[in-house]
Design brief:
Number of strands: 0
Number of domains: 2
Radius of gyration: 16 Å
Helix content: 55-70%
Number of helices: 8
Strand content: under 5%
């Protein structure tokens, strides 16, 4: 698997394999442990991860109200990576503020995930790179309650 540009199937296999290794009580790598922490926050996806033969090729259509669980969990991993290296600068402080606001990490990550998804979607629509300044504005708006959880554009769930 290419670490920096995995295919859709490689990403899905990594989630399936990490979950299977956990359930079989096999040792996990540090990255698999991070993946597992995200999987454990999402019990609604456990039945999907239990059936790789059924869900590896599953298509998800956000316009029909479907959430792609693999994309969703991958965005969680992206958020966790950003927080761990504080990139963009200030995101770690924003995350801690949101955790205090919600009194739990998962909701705070979802606020950041919403902003990341909107930022990526806008970059795709505008055929540009990600606008980090706009991303940070979106993040700050979550702190200031200008945007409520779940109101950002959900096109990124494709």
């Amino acid at each position: 698997m290419s670490l920096f540009n995995p295919s859709r199937d490689e990403v899905r296999d990594f989630f399936f394999n990490s979950w299977a290794k956990f359930k079989q009580q096999q040792p996990l790598t540090d990255l698999e442990k991070m993946v597992l922490s995200v999987i454990q926050m999402h019990p609604e996806y456990h039945s999907i991860l239990d059936k790789p033969e059924q869900y590896k090729q599953q298509a998800y259509f956000p316009e029909q109200g479907q959430t792609n669980p693999f994309l969703h969990m991958s965005l969680h991993l992206s958020v966790l990576e950003q927080i761990s290296i504080n990139q963009p600068i200030g995101i770690t402080t924003i995350y801690e503020t949101l955790k205090n606001k919600y009194q739990e990490a998962h909701a705070a990550q979802h606020d950041i995930l919403d902003c990341l998804g909107e930022s990526i979607w806008l970059a795709q629509q505008n055929k540009t790179g990600q606008d980090v300044a706009h991303y940070l504005e979106l993040l700050h708006s979550k702190i200031n309650n200008k945007v409520q959880h779940g109101q950002n554009n959900k096109e990124y769930q494709k």
